[in-house]
Design brief:
Number of strands: 14
Order of helices and strands: EHEEEEEEEEHEEEEE
Distance between the termini: 17 Å
Helix content: under 10%
Shape: globular
Oligomer: single chain
CATH class: Mainly Beta
Radius of gyration: 16 Å
Largest sheet: 14 strands, mixed
Length: 221
């Protein structure tokens, strides 16, 4: 699967997230479904979708989710296990020369982790000094609330500085005009109904998002 990542312009390198949110609509950035049920033993499929765009300096992501019940137990990045809460994730291989992929995992209130490495077992954990540079805003706020029941709906907006991806390839300076590989996920390992959805299909016997050979293509304008 391939999608085009539109390029947009802002008046400053790190625009306010309210400006980013408005730009998604003004630029007509399309939503893409996270709806691949890859494992029959986990049939629950909440509505999950994302849209993505980029500027000279940042990648912008917006996730929208509607689901039955909600879990948010982590309200800090350090030591968090966001995938145990209701969580959205973005995996990306930014370099043509380094096989390392980055996994950004954020729970529904915008707290999580950012790691990179060539395999699931070989990961470098980016510290708080780096993760804190990822700006985020959730319609649920940023405080843990445990669990909620009934239908829930939320949107998470993220701004990821491109310089963070240069950790894997120090010469990485340009995204425009390149086709990169990545995937997007919605999961909740410890939610009332565990679920594992992806944008691009995954071919493994059990849930596993760390499968770069199953990434789709992202063309950055």
């Amino acid at each position: 699967m391939t999608l085009i990542v539109s390029k947009v312009a802002f008046s400053c390198p790190e625009p306010a997230l309210t400006e980013v949110q408005a730009k998604f609509d003004q630029a007509g950035i399309a939503w893409h479904a996270i709806d691949c049920l890859n494992w029959a033993s986990f049939p629950y499929k909440p509505l999950a979708e994302f849209r993505i765009m980029h500027s000279d300096t940042e990648i912008y992501l917006q996730f929208h989710v509607r689901e039955n019940g909600l879990r948010a137990t982590y309200d800090q990045d350090a030591g968090s296990l966001p995938y145990t809460d209701d969580c959205v994730e973005f995996f990306l291989i930014p370099s043509d020369r380094d096989p390392s992929y980055f996994n950004l995992e954020m729970n529904c209130i915008g707290h999580g982790t950012f790691h990179y490495g060539p395999t699931r077992d070989e990961r470098h954990v980016c510290g708080d000094a780096l993760v804190s540079q990822i700006r985020r805003a959730s319609t649920l706020g940023d405080k843990a609330f445990g669990t909620r029941t009934g239908e829930q709906e939320w949107t998470l907006t993220l701004a990821i500085p491109k310089r963070l991806y240069a950790q894997a390839d120090l010469d990485l300076t340009q995204f425009s005009g390149r086709t990169l590989r990545g995937n997007f996920y919605k999961c909740g390992d410890h939610t009332a109904v565990p679920h594992f959805l992806s944008w691009n299909p995954i071919d493994t016997p059990t849930p596993n998002f760390h499968v770069p050979e199953c990434f789709g293509e992202l063309y950055f304008e």
